[in-house]
Amino acid sequence: MAAVAARELGDGEVVFVGIGLPNLACNLARGTHAPHLVLIYESGAVGAVPERLPVSIGDPALVTGSLMVCGMADVFQLFLQNGKIEVGFLGGAQVDRYGNINTTVIGTYERPTVRLPGSGGAAEIAIHARRTLIVAKLHPRAFPERVDFVTSPGQRTAGKSRRELGMPGAGPLKVITDGAILEADPGTGELVLAALYPGVGADVVRAGVSWPLASRPDLATVPPPSPTELRLLREVLDPNGLFLTSTGDKRTE
Amino acid sequence: MTMKAAVAAFVHDGDVVVIEGFTHLICFAAGHEIIRQQRRALTLARLTPDLIYDQMIAAGCAKKLVFSWAGNPGVGSLHAFRRAVEGKGAPPLELEEYSHFGMVARFSAGAARLPFWALRNYMGTDLPRANPQIRSVTCPYTGEALATVPALNPDVAIVHAQRADAAGNAQIWGLVGVQKEAAFASERVVVVVEELVDEHVIRSDPNRTVIPGMIVDAVVVEPWGAHPSYAQGYYDRDNAFYVAWEAISRDPGELRRYLDEFVYGVADRQAYLARQPGLAARLGAKARYSGGVNYGF
After folding, report:
1. pTM of the model
2. At the fourth CATH level, which superfamily is domain B3-97+178-189+227-275?
3. Cβ contacts of A163 on chain B, cutoff 8 Å
4. DSSP of chain B, one letter per residue?
5. What is the interface pTM, i.e. ipTM, of the complex?
6. B129 and chain A: CB distance < 8 Å anywhere?
């Protein structure tokens, strides 16, 4: 997942980075094809070059050697609302058919069965980043037809498109899972199967989502991680297995 | 002033209290003293409640939480918070929930003494449904509908800084979060520092001053007062403790034992530090000094 997510980032792009897998993906991209990727963390570090894998998005290693450190009012007003963020990375407990994300509650808001952390900066990243990438593992509970609570809006919410709702960014264009890449259909906004990982069947992916998953006619195969990508991930970026396990990625938030 | 005296004088039952700091410079020392002095019915405001508010919730200090992300950063859940919200045996906790941008905007409005702040946000989200304080206004110039959040003006802000002079002119470097806005928004401000310095040290580098002494009511000198969070240039985050908090907070009995040993069972911060020797060797910051600039004319 980290390697696939990294490939979505272009050299020189400005990316709003979350902790965990997005952070790994961004630093992998920086170490391979995108050395000029600009990492911005909501904590205020701009152009961060962390010398160790940050344990949180407020890690002191994000400050050391960065281009700029600003207050959080500046992060949200001068960078995000101003339109300077090209890519936003989001994860969540639930992702629905239209890419809406729930990181707030499972169950009702008033009487939740599981209380999740909440938005943090995710709602505004989903609204303002020029495009967003979602990372989540396939599971019917993780990909319901409709999320219990829309924390971060996707392509359609309450029957309305992003354009109708006045959102500046293009929203989630791709969802990187542990078996396939889903993409938002440009016409309907619905997430459809776009590419499979090697050895993963479409039936496995369909079993991991709760709605009848449509498929693009020109289904692609995702190249497996290269030796360089694997070496960087396992030996340089996450040598202690904080976020990676031998079987895959441990945490997505 | 001692922390004990500062909390006694400036934090009262029923107050709206903000202990800010985004991962960096979270004043656990103040939170612990508030728990020791058994403050009650507090409205705790903060973007990221973190472990310290989880402890204050568990200790019964809070009636309400105003926040935008309630987790253990990089680790997982705040279980005392979750028990209270999920109705699992803890006293109920009233919630007023925003996103980070919303909380930042609330402090900005409060600091500027405006009644609200406008932001282009929340369209398509369920947050306004969960929190009726998130409203909208029509721009008088463009006709655009913009989201609004009300000003937040806490009764007291407690801000941890690397250094200040005796008058409270406080300097922060590294992540500065929303400490400036939170302090200017509050009626009373307590600054807690790693080091007390002479006024000439502050004056030698005025761009680094985040909070001016004129808005500060008390200065408390409390080295390692932000542990287990960190202070850039002084000590690193005690990540082992953040990881350990997952198991401690999951079990109400364990949490109680933690509070008994490290909060109720110690008189002050020195006693807290004495119970965990070796912190400096384990977490002390390496030297990475900036070059300095010429302020001459």
Report:
1. 0.96
2. Glutaconate Coenzyme A-transferase (3.40.1080.10)
3. none
4. --HHHHHHHH--TT-EEEE--SSBS--HHHHHHHHHTT--SEEEE-SS-HHHHHHHHHTT-EEEEEES--SBTTTB--HHHHHHHTTSSSPP-EEEE--HHHHHHHHHHHHHT-SEEEES--TT-SHHHH-TT-EEEE-TTT--EEEEEE----SEEEEEEEEE-TT--EE--S--TTHHHHHHHSSEEEEEEEEE--HHHHHTSGGGEEE-GGG-SEEEE-TTTTTTSBBTTTB---HHHHHHHHHHHHSHHHHHHHHIIIIIT-SSHHHHHHTSTTHHHHHBPPP----------
5. 0.96
6. yes
